[in-house]
Structures are given as C-alpha cells and as structure tokens.
Design goal:
The protein is 37% helix and 11% strand. It is of the alpha+beta class and 335 residues long. The protein has 2 domains: 155 residues, no CATH class; 149 residues, Glutaredoxin (3-Layer(aba) Sandwich), CATH 3.40.30. The protein has a 7-stranded mixed beta sheet with strand order 4-3-7-6-5-8-9. Strands 1-2 form a two-stranded antiparallel ribbon. α1 crosses α4 and α2 crosses α4. Pfam families: T4_deiodinase.
Length: 335
Amino acid sequence: MDVSTTSADDVLKKRYAELAEKTATAIANEGPPPNINDRPAIPNSLPTLPRYEPPPPHRPQRQRPTCRMFFPTSGHLGFDTVKLTTELPSIETVREMVIYETRLRLSDSIQEIMDQYYTDECAVTFVHDLIQKHVVEHFGYHDVNALRTALYRFPNDPVIQAAFYVKYNKITQGIVNQDQCARDVDLYTTDGHLITLFSQMSSGQPLIILAGVLVRSHAPNGIRLLAIYIAEAHARDEWPVGKTISCIDQPTTLAERLNNAQQFKKNFNFEMLMLVDNMDNTFHTTYGSWPFRLFVIYDGKLVLKAEPDKETFTYDMNEIDNWIANFYQSRSQTN
C-alpha cells in the first residue's frame, strides 16, 4: 500500500467533507424560497428512491484547465445539452428551481466559498453539485437532472434563459473548423490601433494563437506566438465565481476592454504579443474561442483547433507542445 497516496486521499476527503459542511451552512443561511400560490414546495411524503450524490472528489489533473460552461451544472455536456432525466417536473416547478438555484449560487455566502477554493476546480464543481442536489430535493425530486435538463426541455422559456449560466454561456464551435482555410478578422493592439489577424501571418511560419489561456511564454524558433484578449469568461456582473477570479465587470466599450488587456499585461508581466478582440467578438464567433482555446494557422489553413475532452470537458495543455514537436520532426524529414 502506498502510504503517501492513502494519506493524500484522506486529506482530500477531509477537505471535501469540510467543504460540504460549509456549503450546507451557506445554503441554510440563505433560507428557503417563498411558497408559490400558498402551497409548500415539498410534498408531505416522498417515495423511497436513490438520492443523487455528487461524485467523490479526485485529484485535479495538471495541465488540464476546465471549461465550466461545458459542465452539467450549467445544463451542458460539452457543446450539447443535458437531455436525460428520470423525472419531469412541470415548467412552473422548473422555473422555481432555476430561480432558487440562481439565488443560492450568486449569494454572498456561496461566493465566499468560491473565493476560498478558487484554485480547485473540483471543489467549485462539488459546491455546484451540492447546491443543485439541495434544490431538486427541496422541490420533492430525486434526480438532479430534473433541474439540469431545464435548458433542453424549455430552451425558449424566459426564466430559464435569464439564468446567468444560460444567458452568459457563449460556448460555440465558431464557423472555421480544423483543416479549413483561416478567415481574417479585425483586431486591435492594446493601445487601440486597428489591425488584422492575417497581418500577423508569414509564409512558411506557423502562427500559434492562445485565446484566454497561456501555455507558454515564448515562441520556439520558426514559430510565431500570439495571444488574443477576448471577452471575460467570468465577469463580476455576469457569471461570478468569487471575488478573486471575478474581479472586473464585462466591458461594454472597446476602451474598457483595452484597459483590461493593458492591466492584465502589467499585473502579470505579460511580454507576449497580445491583440484584442473587437466588441462584436468577431474572433470568438469566427474561431470559437470561448472561454479559452488553442489554435495553429499554417500556410493559410487552420491546422489545429484544440477540442475539450468529451468526458472531463478539459483541455490538454500539452497538445500545443505535441504539435510543435511533430512540426519540427516533419520539417527535419523534408530537409
């Protein structure tokens, strides 16, 4: 038996048990939602059915940033929506669920927990799981997907559309897919000068584009590296996950977005060339960059468009290094 592994697992379980207790306290502090139409939200008796239990905690994988907009807690399974459920509450009940859940997730108590665990993606997911478990059980149901299928079952309902994780969920595949010709888009330098994406390309030289994520700080020989500052993924006034991560509002003007990009470069000593997406988010809608992605354009073609894992909804940050290694190998074989 690996004593160190066992000890680490025990520490992790204890940490998550404490997190579950904190979450339960935060939920209790917020109080239940008001009764609708003078009726109790929970039936007097419930049939005996298996209760949903959040998956056990596991050690976060390194080099694999997650995209929370892909998660079931946001009504999604990757680019698709959650569709399967054993229970079908009425639209009226689903609306109440969504409103109650939204109030809990945006509450000061839960946001404080997000702040305490912001470096642990699994912890954030665990908290959201616990909240959704509480919500469905509060309304007398057992299957957490009774809530998570809201977007699939009632995609045009205004109450569901108003939920922050629906309204501000901008995941998209874009319109340019891997192995298709790249498209030029208008961008800006961080000091506000209009420029184009194609102006950064040179014949015979791959252009690596990092949108919303940094995986390396310098470009290898013969390769150009470009960062593009896109819209905020978790803006304070849209989809907050604690004050540490969600420390600024979503810009409404180009000047505000440029200022955010400048502050980012300054605060993180960011030396890589950075351009800024325009306020129509043209780069994002063209290439599907939200909230982060890796691209390689070579000889006018999009030769790499990183895709999230279909089970964990994470990106492999080693993918770009593997592409670079293969590029150098193929070049050496042709010389």
